[in-house]
C-alpha cells in the first residue's frame, strides 16, 4: 500500500548511470519529483544535469537504473514517448518557427482536424490556443507571428505548448538567462500558477536568488554523482555552493588591489538618441568600474557605442589623454579597446570553429601577412594565452561549442588578451556560468586589473557588481544616476538610486 508521501511522488529516478565511450557521466544518480512542486536541479557545468534531463525526456535510452511514473516503471525509447507520458522540456535555446503564428507553433505536427481526415481545422486551432492562453491569464493574440514576440513571450509560448500536451512535468533549463527582471518576475508568476495546478517543474539555474525565490526543493549533482536533495528551507547559498563544488567558498570574490592614480579612460557627455544621454565617467589604471541598473537602463548601449558597434550622436572618448574617433569595432580594437559581449554564443564565439580559430579571427593583423597565416605564431600564442587562462580542453583544435560555459568565456577573453589592451569592457561576464567557473573568471578579472588594465564591467547581478568593483556607476533611464565608492556600494544604496530615478520619470 502506498503511503501519502509516496502518492505525492510524481516521478522517481533511481540509480541512473550513463557512460559515453566508456566514461561515466552519471553514476548512480537519483531524483524524486513531487506533484505541484518546483524542484531545482543544480551543479557545476559538467555535473550531469543535462544528461539526466535528456534521459528523463527520452533523448537517451541506453542507461542503467530505473524510472517510475506515479509508481509504475517506465522507460522512454524516444522523446515522443516522454511527451505522450506528459513530460516536456522548455530548452535554454528556443527554436520557434518565426514566420508561423503562436497557434501554429503550439500545435505544429498535431493540428486539430475537421471531420474530414487530414484537413486542418483552423477554427479549432485558434480556439484551442485561445483557451490555453486564457488558462494562464495571458493576453496574447494566437494569430501573432512568433518573430514579433520577446524572448520572455517566446518562452511562455513554449510553456503553453507543454501544457497543450497535458504535461504533468515540465523541465525548464535556464529559463531566465535572457530575461529582464520584470520578465523574470512575470515568468515566476506563471510557474506558481502551474504549481498550483499540480504540475511539477524541474528548474535548472545558476542563479541562487531565483532558486530561493521560486523553488521548493533542491537536488545537487557533482561530477556525475548525486550529492543530496533537501527542502529549500533547510539550505542557504553557502551550503548549496559547498555541495556543488565539494569545498567551501568562503570568499567568492577575490580581494582587489587599489587602482593607480592616472586616469586612462574618459567618457564625456556620451549621447545616443533614445538610448542614453550625457553619460560621463572616468576609469583609472587598474580600476574596475562596475555598472549596475535594471535592463533597459542603457548600460549595454553605452558599451556598444564605446566599442564602435553603434554611432554616438554627441560626446567624446579619450584614452590615455588622446581623443578618439571610433566609428567601427575595428577602430576600437586598433586603439586597444576590447569588448566581451553579454551573449558569448551569438556574438562572442564562432561555436563551430576551434579554440585556435576563435582566438585568431579578430587578430589577423597579428597572425597573417597578406593572405598567408603565420600558423606557428598563432598556435604558440594561442597555447600560451589558453594556459594562462586555464582553458580546460584536450586540444586547441576542439570546437568552442563543445566547451563548458566557463571555458567558452575564457576563450572569449583569450582572443582579446593576445593583444596589448588599454581598456577591457565586460558585459555580463559570468552569465550562464556555474559558481566554480565564476570564481575562476573573477580571479582572471582581478589579475588583469592588478596588471594595470582599466576594466568597465556591466552586470545585472548585484552581488557580482558589488564584489568585483572599485566603484559602481548606477544607470537608470539612460543616465548615470549616481556613483558609489566600494565602501558605499550596497544593494540597498544601488536600489535606492534606481527607485529614485523611476520616481523622477
Notable traits:
alpha/beta, 6-stranded mixed β-sheet, 35% helix, 25% strand, globular
Structure description:
With 505 residues, this protein is of the alpha/beta class. The protein is built from 19 helices and 22 strands. The strands form five sheets. The chain has a six-stranded mixed sheet, sandwiched between helices. It has a six-stranded mixed sheet with strand order 16-19-20-13-21-22, sandwiched between helices. It has a four-stranded antiparallel sheet with strand order 2-1-4-5. Strand 1 and strand 2 form a beta hairpin. Helix 16 runs parallel beside helix 17. The longest helix has 16 residues. The chain is globular, with a radius of gyration of 25 Å. The termini are far apart. The model has no long low-confidence stretch (mean pLDDT 88).
Alpha-beta classification:
alpha/beta
Distance between the termini: 62 Å
Q: In which range does the helix fraction lie?
A: 25-40%
Supply Rg.
Answer: 25 Å
As a percent range, the share of strand residues is: 25-35%
Oligomer: single chain
Which spans have pLDDT < 50 for at least 5 consecutive residues? none
| Strands in their spatial order, largest beta sheet | 6-7-8-3-9-10
Mean pLDDT: 88
The number of helical segments is: 19
- Overall shape: it is globular
